[in-house]
Amino acid sequence: MDRRTRRAICLFDVDGTITESRQPIDPAVRTYLVDELKGKAAIGLVSGSDVAKITEQLGGPEHVAKFDYVFAENGLVAFKDGEEFDRRTIVDYLGEEKLQTFINYALGYMSDVRLPVKRGNFVEFRVGLINICPVGRSCSKAERDHFEQYDKVHNVRKKFIESIKENLPDIGLTYSVGGQISFDCFPVGWDKRYCLRYVEDEFKGNIHFFGDKTSAGGNDHEIFNDPRVSGHTVTDPEDTVSQLNDLFF
């Protein structure tokens, strides 16, 4: 169906919303979105992850291209109908001196943190943000799940963010917790609301966002509460499909 005949757009977080955290999408959910929902509304993805991770979770570039819009890294890397059309970088915003000050502080902080396990890849540099992972992104699925439960008790990520804010108050970044093991660091205003500039005119008054981290501190919170958006909190992909059925079918 021509996008011009669809007056609404549904924007989806990825982890915890249309997939389990960092897991491949259930093919049934993918089919539902691109074969059924797309006939009722335009569809888009909004993720803090880079496009490579989104592509991996969706099952390949041919599936990603079926979404009308894909906003990787909160929209700093933007795709329409499978083609990239805009890009912004955190290096341009911060400059090398501030960037290294921030990375050095984060690495120093993590060198003093004791956790049940530590693995590799603690700082992941992306186009529009820096992802900080105290346990290390190369942890196993079992270690990922264990850290998530440990973090709920010990607030590892929350304390880390508080320390950055206290020690680097003028760095020009803001922070949000997403997924199970990490948090995103990005320029003020470069949260998931950034992507709305690309769709607000075309779908004014009819922008729906679905996410699981919509409470304060979560990486879906800002876009969920934006006045341009109808926000929907979901618990998992099954709940997402259920809410879509109620809204559009």
UniProtKB/TrEMBL annotation:
What are the recorded Gene Ontology BP terms? GDP-mannose biosynthetic process; mannose metabolic process; protein N-linked glycosylation
Catalyses which reaction?
Answer: alpha-D-mannose 1-phosphate = D-mannose 6-phosphate
Which superkingdom does the taxonomy of this entry point to?
A: Eukaryota
Q: Which InterPro entries match?
A: HAD-like_sf (IPR036412), HAD-SF_hydro_IIB (IPR006379), HAD_sf (IPR023214), PMM (IPR005002), PMM_cap (IPR043169)
Residue numbers binding alpha-D-mannose 1-phosphate? 22, 126, 137, 144, 182, 184
Cite the Gene3D superfamilies for this sequence. Answer: 3.30.1240.20, HAD superfamily/HAD-like
What cofactors are annotated for this protein? Mg(2+)
Kinase listed as a keyword: no
In this protein, the active site sits at: 13 (nucleophile), 15 (proton donor/acceptor)
Top-level EC class:
isomerase
Q: What is its EC number?
A: 5.4.2.8
Protein family membership? Belongs to the eukaryotic PMM family.
Biological role stated in the UniProt entry: Involved in the synthesis of the GDP-mannose and dolichol-phosphate-mannose required for a number of critical mannosyl transfer reactions.
Protein name as annotated: Phosphomannomutase
